Please model this.
Amino acid sequence: MNQLVFTQNGQPVTDSLKVAETFGKEHARVMRDIRELECSEEFRVGNFAESTYINAQGRDTPKYIITEQGFAFLAMGYTGKEAARFKELYISEFNKMRDSLNRPYANLTPELQAIFLLDQRTQEIINRVEHIENNTTIDYGQQRELNSLAKQRVFKVIGGNKSPAYADGSLRSKVYKGIWKDYQDYFNVNSYCNTLVADYNRAKQYLTIWTPQGKLLRGIEQTNNQMCIED
Model:
């Protein structure tokens, strides 16, 4: 006899084909029994899922995927000594399958069980760390590091402290505002202080390579070029 119980979406189930074969009934009869069950529509939908299989003629043919509760409800209508034996067999198979799902490593050697358990715990730690990084903002020391990188980048893009653009306090202020505005837009934060831990390394890289664009860039270039011409 083929395996009576299998898993689908992590749940032990059987199907109408196996029930028909086990109880010695025509599949069409079992399908009709399921449709005629006196149960709520909610119970029917939750425990008898419509599916298909390929029959001997190569055609898609309807069948039902049946949960443990669905089987118990259906099998109540099958009586007799043989039916009772098959019910016991099914119950035993459902119990075994449920046990194997609850204890997936039970049949492994102690060494393999230890390896899988270690892998599972390692993954749990990784998941917790990722959750923390994705929901925790950087600390004060990291905030200072980002602020320092931003100052260094502004200092460089305007040409150093001896450049005309640096001497222009208004322009220098616009460049500072520009780098943080672009930063906030890129990382979707209202302040660099709210940078996520998970984004910290990318944030440092961003500030290291940031370049002003458009009107701000032209303002820096024009100011520096103008003073050079005057000299």
